[in-house]
Amino acid sequence: MRIATWNVNSITARLPRLLAWLETTGTDVLCIQETKCSAEQFPTEELRALGYESVVNATGRWNGVALVSRVGLEDVVGGLPGGPDYEGVQEPRAISATCGGVRVWSVYVPNGREVEHDHYAYKLRWLEALRAAVAEDAAGERPFAVLGDYNIAPTDEDVWDIAEFEGLTHVTEPERAALAALREAGLGDVVPRPLKYAHPYTYWDYRQLRFPKNKGMRIDLVYGNKAFSDAVRDSYVDREERKGKGASDHAPVVVDLDV
């Protein structure tokens, strides 16, 4: 089974590339983040024409997550059970389903914006709610994984220059402690191999020629339980999909499983 995660940064803008990528790669399950559309605007029919079912948790121009699968979608849960509100709103940042016997979550963790911002405290609360929500599946025997844009670089090596991030979000101790709590719950970091250069970055800002200079970050993560991790045959960052006109600022992360 081939499972992938991709922050498309607007599914409307990325749809032609997304459909072509699915056809080319033979992906069975795709976790999508930042759909930036309403549920009604999601391209369900276009995906169905390629043989994919889809479920989406999206409300408009910001955030939004989805799962598309050609191996089934069962026991769908939209949203993060017990998740916090932000400014009185439950943002569409999580969706989960069972696909071909594997329990899969697609998540878009809050950005945090600035360390002193309310959004940063919200991010930490959201991550704690995620840990609580996945604890049972993380410790279970069924293959289980939480894939998506975590907006956290797990280590200093997961950014191009840690000195550039002094005082900024994505690399702080509390954020990394939240990742450690997921690992303590039974989830392991499935680190992909890079197809070019030494580090498997997954995100490069559009500004300041960050992609050509390879000034990237590894923030799109796959956290799987033991049953999932033991089944991993290969994992890589499809850096080629970050190239060219109309690309997202994130590249897909692909995982091949023997299940």
UniProtKB/TrEMBL annotation:
Has the keyword Phosphoprotein been applied to this entry?
Answer: no
Annotated coiled-coil segments of the chain? none
Query: What cofactor does this protein call for?
Result: Mg(2+); Mn(2+)
Co-factor remark: Probably binds two magnesium or manganese ions per subunit.
Binding locations of Mg(2+): 7, 34, 149, 151, 249-250
Keyword Amino-acid biosynthesis included in the entry's annotation: no
What's the protein here called?
Answer: Exodeoxyribonuclease III
Organism expressing this protein natively: Streptomyces showdoensis
- Residues annotated as the enzyme's active site: 108, 149, 250
Q: Which GO terms describe its molecular function?
A: double-stranded DNA 3'-5' DNA exonuclease activity; metal ion binding
Q: GO biological process: what's one of them?
A: DNA repair
Task: Show which residues form the site (Interaction with DNA substrate).
Answer: 250
Q: Where is this site: Important for catalytic activity?
A: 220
**Record-marked site positions (Transition state stabilizer):** 151
Q: Cite the Endonuclease/exonuclease/phosphatase domain residue spans from the record.
A: 4-250
Q: Which UniProt keywords apply?
A: Hydrolase, Magnesium, Manganese, Metal-binding
Query: Which family does the similarity line name?
Result: Belongs to the DNA repair enzymes AP/ExoA family.
Locate the transmembrane regions by residue number. Answer: none
Taxonomic superkingdom: Bacteria
